[in-house]
Design brief:
Helix content: 55-70%
Shape: globular
Structural class: mainly alpha
Number of helices: 8
Length: 205
């Protein structure tokens, strides 16, 4: 699954868990956590969909934060888990139980990343994501970035690092069908970063 599909899933899962736990998670951090496993694309010593996609590793690294405040952490963990457990499980699989197992786990009914069906699935996810962003009025959060959000936006850079190289044909070509959703996603990435940066530097003046 490409970045736009992962971000859509992470948003849907994170927001749903946040609703159930009575928390309003940061949109920026939800989107960061949704693509965090794919940072292995930038680390040549790591196999793609390898250890960074491990559910065991995600759980272990999240445990101290869950103990500290599980209500705050749970939506972000759900966003990350959706990456491997849903997005990659149905599109080729991943090394989900490393280091306990080196088995590649994938759905027997999985879709190929090169299939038109998978592209349409991501297009539908992107559409649902954009509609919920508007109808829930979450887009307003992106327009009202505070100084605190400026610090959080620095964590949002991994999303840019994953999405932008994808559009530059690394690690794979983006299908034309999904080019517009990716461009819209990049716009959403840049909007809060620029908005928060302007507010931040105005405050210094």
């Amino acid at each position: 699954m490409l970045a736009v599909g992962h971000v859509a899933l992470g948003y849907l899962f994170g927001k749903s868990v946040g609703y159930l736990t009575g928390r309003r998670p940061s949109l920026l951090l939800l989107w960061v956590f949704s693509v965090l496993p794919d940072l292995d694309l930038l680390l040549p010593f790591l196999e793609h969909r390898g250890p960074s996609h491990s559910l065991v590793l995600m759980g272990a690294l999240s445990l101290p934060f869950l103990i500290w405040n599980w209500r705050i952490m749970l939506p972000y963990l759900a966003s990350s888990l959706s990456h491997s457990l849903v997005g990659d499980y149905f599109t080729g699989g991943a090394l989900m139980f490393w280091p306990l197992s080196s088995a590649w786990v994938k759905s027997p009914l999985g879709l190929s990343m090169a299939s038109v069906s998978e592209w349409y699935l991501e297009l539908v996810l992107a559409g649902v994501f954009m509609m919920l962003l508007v109808f829930s009025k979450d887009y307003r959060v992106l327009l009202r970035s505070s100084k605190l959000d400026f610090r959080f936006s620095l964590l949002f850079l991994p999303l840019c690092v994953v999405v932008l190289p994808a559009l530059l044909l690394f690690p794979r070509l983006i299908p034309r069908l999904l080019l517009l959703p990716h461009l819209l996603l990049i716009g959403l990435v840049l909007l809060p970063v620029l908005s928060a940066a302007v507010r931040h530097f105005k405050g210094l003046g």
